[in-house]
Design goal:
Structural class: alpha/beta
CATH architecture of the largest domain: Alpha-Beta Complex
Radius of gyration: 20 Å
CATH topology of the largest domain: DNA primase DNAg catalytic core, N-terminal domain
Distance between the termini: 59 Å
CATH class of the largest domain: Alpha Beta
Bound molecules: zinc ion
Shape: globular
Strand content: 15-25%
Number of strands: 12
């Protein structure tokens, strides 16, 4: 197969991306080296999926398929091999390779390809994120999904999420208003892409820091085969619900957006650290001084690691914490779904 559109050379850099990083980017929760199978069509109840970091490969023992990072993305997202390669290039900033087609490339280390000079110019842009959110009013499907997770309308309104239904039209509007370079610098669009990095239909969650919209994360709605969670490209992730720290003496630290919403609905103040973050930013450490701090880890290996890292970091700064273990459910939202709202 030699379709002209597909670059056959230079796949070494794509294949060099650590498969655990790819799994993380797809929103797969890996416990050790196993996970629930992420492949489309397999509703896995017990982890059937193995990752072999040393070989950079994966395998589902039930589906009897797997392979490289490229195969992982293709099966998990239901896209072609070339679609999976394009997705990986865009997620891991490798897409500048399109600049010299036809030239056989030597394999280059991933670190070399990360384009730090470009990443350093990327910074949050509150005006652009606000305009995006204005284009994305929360729709019925998103409300129904959130309600199915047992969130009340009051909770939903408090966190001000929106729904992205058409990223082509949204991209066009934002480019007309701000220009393409500004969107690239805001981490919303990659240099080679023709649309913003979030894939519809998705719920868009705004992250406010000191009242300013500092980050956006998208959660795929059912029927969307893209990664479950997608973030901005190259923008550092603030904690979710940051500004609650000014309002409450007791702060619960948990993983991610839905856990924060669940704890909020239980009448408590929570901030969320996003997947893989194991250190709190300086401004958050400062806000946490003189607070009662509770860490609520998910009941899995990732949750335990997060709790230990955060506890150690807070202790080094002279802040003591209490780790609250969930009595039921794998995470706070599951617990909320079992017990129902208070
Ligand atoms: Zn499977």
């Amino acid at each position: 197969m030699t379709r002209p559109g597909i670059r056959r050379q230079g796949l070494d850099d794509v294949k060099a991306i650590p498969i655990l990083e790819v799994a993380k980017a797809l929103g797969i929760r890996v416990k050790g080296t196993s996970a629930l199978c992420p492949f489309l069509g397999h509703e896995d109840q017990n982890p059937s999926f193995s990752i072999y970091p040393a070989d950079n490969r994966c395998w589902c023992h039930r589906c009897a398929k797997g392979g490289s990072s490229i195969d992982l993305v293709a099966y998990a997202q239901g896209v072609s091999v070339s679609g999976a390669i394009a997705w990986l290039r865009s997620q891991f900033y490798l897409d500048n390779q399109t600049s010299s087609p036809g030239i056989l490339r030597k394999s280059v280390s991933l670190a070399h390809q990360a384009r730090p000079e470009s990443a350093s110019t990327i910074k949050p842009n509150s005006d652009i994120y606000t305009a995006l959110l204005e284009q994305c009013p929360l729709d019925e499907a998103a409300t129904a999904y959130l309600t199915s997770r047992k969130f009340t309308l009051e909770t939903i309104r408090y966190f001000k999420p929106g729904t992205l239904t058409n990223n082509v039209a949204t991209t066009r509007i934002l480019i007309a208003r701000f220009g393409r370079p500004a969107l690239v610098q805001a981490g919303l669009i990659s240099e080679k892409a023709n649309r913003i990095c979030f894939i519809p239909p998705a719920i868009i969650f705004p992250f406010y820091v000191q009242g300013c919209l500092a980050y956006i994360q998208a959660r795929a709605l059912p029927g969307n085969s893209a990664a479950r969670w997608l973030g901005l490209r190259g923008v550092s992730k603030p904690v979710y619900n940051h500004d609650v720290m000014r309002k409450s003496r007791s702060i619960y630290i948990c993983e991610g957006v839905t856990d924060v919403m669940s704890i909020h609905q239980m009448g408590l103040a929570a901030i969320g650290v996003l997947g893989g973050t194991t250190a709190l930013p300086k401004d958050v450490m400062k806000e946490l001084r003189a607070k009662d701090i509770y860490i609520v880890p998910d009941r899995d290996a990732v949750g335990e690691t997060m709790a230990q890292h955060l506890k150690a970091q807070l202790q080094r700064a002279g802040l003591s914490t209490v780790t609250k273990r969930l009595d039921m459910g794998g995470d706070v939202n599951e617990r909320l779904m079992m017990r129902g709202p208070r």
